[in-house]
C-alpha cells in the first residue's frame, strides 16, 4: 500500500501515476510471477485505491490499473537486439553498465529468473565442471544447468567477490534502460502489440525459444526452466510442432 500511495499534508495523500503501476507489473513479471498472480495483487491495489477514495484521500484521477491479458506472450530478443543491448552497455564503460552486461549474458545463457540470478552463491557453482545448480524458490526445486563458455569465462574473473552478482541495484536499472532504449521504441510497435514490451524476463523466453528451436523437447525445456509441470512450458509448443511439421514433410518427400 505504501509503495503506491505517498503521504502529503495532514491525513491526505496523492496516488502515484499509471507508469508506477506498469513498473510494478514489469518487476513482478521479471520475478517469475504468472499473469494470474500479478492480477491478484493488482486487484488488492485497486481495492486499496477505492478505499482511499471512499475515505476522502486525494486520488490521481488519471490512475489506471489494467489487469494483464490472459493471452500468453513470448517476447524474445533477436540476435540483432542482443548485440545492440550488449553494445549499448559496453559503450558506457561504467561499473554499473559492465555489471549489467554480465548479468544480461548470464540470464540469456541460463534462462534463470532475475531474482534467482541475484541470489545465487558461489557454492551453487562447479566452475571446473562448468555446471550450476539453481534453487527455484517459486517451485521449491533445484535445476542443474550447464555454463556456456562466455558465462564460465565471465564468472571465473569474479571469484574474489562475495557473490557472483554483488551490489546489483544500479546494474539492474542500467539493464532495464538498455532494453527499453533498444527494444521498446516506436519502430517496434508491431512486435510490442503482438508479444508485449521487452523486459529482463524476456531473457528467459529467449533462452527457451532458442533451445526448443534447436531441437530440445518441451519436457527437457521444462526441466531447464524449473517449471513445476510441462504444462507451463506449453507456450513454446508451436516451436516443437514446427520442427515436427518440417520433419514430416521431409519424410513424405522420400
From TrEMBL:
Domain Tyr recombinase: 72-250
Stored SUPFAM superfamilies: DNA breaking-rejoining enzymes (SSF56349)
One BP annotation, GO: DNA integration
Membrane-spanning residues: none
Signal peptide interval: none
One GO molecular-function entry: DNA binding
Pfam families named among the record's database cross-references: Phage_integrase (PF00589)
InterPro entries, A to Z: DNA_brk_join_enz (IPR011010), Integrase-like_cat_sf (IPR013762), Integrase_catalytic (IPR002104), Tyrosine_recombinase_XerCD (IPR050090)
Keywords, in A-Z order: DNA integration, DNA recombination
PANTHER family assigned: PHAGE INTEGRASE-RELATED, PROPHAGE INTEGRASE INTD-RELATED
Protein name, UniProt field: Tyr recombinase domain-containing protein
Natural source organism: Paracoccus liaowanqingii
Amino acid at each position: 500500500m505504501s509503495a503506491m500511495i505517498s503521504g502529503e499534508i495532514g491525513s491526505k495523500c496523492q496516488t502515484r501515476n499509471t507508469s508506477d503501476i506498469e513498473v510494478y507489473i514489469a518487476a513482478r513479471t521479471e520475478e517469475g510471477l504468472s499473469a494470474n498472480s500479478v492480477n491478484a495483487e493488482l486487484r488488492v491495489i485497486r481495492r486499496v485505491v477505492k478505499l482511499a477514495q471512499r475515505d476522502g484521500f486525494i486520488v490521481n484521477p488519471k490512475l489506471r490499473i489494467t489487469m494483464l491479458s490472459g493471452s500468453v506472450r513470448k517476447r524474445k530478443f533477436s540476435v540483432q537486439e542482443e548485440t545492440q543491448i550488449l553494445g549499448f552497455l559496453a559503450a558506457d564503460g561504467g561499473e554499473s553498465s559492465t555489471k549489467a552486461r554480465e548479468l544480461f549474458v548470464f540470464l540469456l545463457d541460463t534462462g534463470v529468473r532475475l531474482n534467482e540470478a541475484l541470489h545465487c552463491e558461489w557454492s551453487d557453482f562447479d566452475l571446473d565442471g562448468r555446471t550450476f545448480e539453481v534453487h527455484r524458490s517459486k517451485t521449491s526445486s533445484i535445476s542443474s544447468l550447464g555454463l556456456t563458455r562466455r558465462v564460465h569465462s565471465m564468472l571465473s574473473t569474479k571469484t574474489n567477490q562475495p557473490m557472483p552478482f554483488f551490489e546489483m541495484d544500479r546494474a539492474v536499472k542500467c539493464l532495464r534502460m538498455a532494453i527499453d532504449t533498444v527494444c521498446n521504441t516506436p519502430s517496434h510497435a508491431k512486435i510490442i502489440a503482438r508479444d508485449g514490451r521487452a523486459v529482463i524476463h524476456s531473457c528467459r523466453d529467449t533462452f527457451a525459444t532458442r533451445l526448443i528451436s534447436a531441437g530440445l523437447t518441451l519436457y527437457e525445456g521444462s526441466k531447464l526452466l524449473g517449471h513445476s509441470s510441462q504444462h507451463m512450458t506449453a507456450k513454446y509448443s508451436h516451436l516443437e510442432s514446427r520442427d515436427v511439421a518440417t520433419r514430416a514433410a521431409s519424410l513424405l518427400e522420400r
